[in-house]
Automatic annotation (TrEMBL):
This is FAD/NAD(P)-binding domain-containing protein. It comes from Aspergillus steynii IBT 23096. Coiled coil: none annotated. Residues 9-212 form the FAD/NAD(P)-binding domain. It comes from the Eukaryota. One of its GO terms (molecular function) is oxidoreductase activity. SUPFAM superfamilies: FAD/NAD(P)-binding domain.
Amino acid sequence: MNSPQNCSAVVVGAGPAGLAVVGNLLEQLGGKVAWIDPIFQGGRVNRKYREVPSNTKVSLFQAYATAVQPFRSVINNTRIPSPFSTMAKLDQEKTCHLHHAADMLKGLSDGIVKMDQVMAYRGVVTAANLAENTSMWTVRIMRRDSLDEFEVATPRLIFCTGSSPSQVSMPVSGLDIRRLDLDVVLKPSDLVTYLPRDIPQTVAVVGASHSAILALLNLVELARSTHPQLRVKWFTRHPLRYAEYMDGWILRDNTGLKGLAADFARQQLEDEQLPQSEAGRFITKVDCGGGQEMAQYKQHLPSCSHFVQAVGFTRDPLPELSVDGESLQLEFDSESGGFHDGKGRPVPGLHGAGIAFPERVVDPHGNVEHAVGFWKFMKYLQRVCPQWAASQ
């Protein structure tokens, strides 16, 4: 393997966080920024969630797209019509489907990878080792097209590698029930072909999150149109929770229902609405609160054909990381965006951002949440990236 090429930073991942890191570092650093992703097409947002209605106002997507000079340069040099001009024409105070945001990400990425300061590698990071005496990372990259491996050396390594829907074990064993991927349920064009139309099906939906409510909405739309024999059992432990706009801040900003999901929940899923609503024709709510969760599963799951969980997201695995050849145990520090090792010591030059490594925030009522969203990532990175750039 040839000697590693030096660069000022290595950024892994090209979703909204990875793109935002690159944009910020281009403003902060001299030298080359290596950017690594298999396809540079907007990450999971574009691959999986184009059909999902956002819980973010259009104006905040716009704020993200214009937050740093490299992004503004891409927008100014892109012919109209473009994803940026389309976004600008939308109602800025309303939400939109994520395909608008995904196209914006792709448009920005297309421009950023062409910049002279960016070394874009289509591939994956397979390993990275920190030389403690020099505080330099040697990052091994496998190309997507040829599977050849090569190395780059950098003082800064930033992971924006994303998360996937969490899966926990089936609560009742021995049942003839198929697990249904949440990503499929959140994409109606896939869901319509996945479930059979001509036989009775009952889908168990677990959770009351934003994703769970959207899953219920998509299943109801299917039942009232192409799949009339489809029914849903909705397992939930607590009442529906909504984001509430307070005086200058938002209660449950990162955990409460917003946008289309909130409208659907208020109008059709609340206890006083469900029996008379259209959704109530297809959904049976199963109350799992008060310690009766397992009993409810045992009673109701045997009649279900499919099972989908909407209970959060789990960080995707990182590649093998080491210090002087010894495996590295990591703990993320959401205040700085850095990491500590197993002994609590800061790991030089290693950082993270995005849904896998979000900022921890505390609201005026003392509630702790993790800030997830395009504009939230950008605001966080505008705070921490100058520290990352100055650290070497």
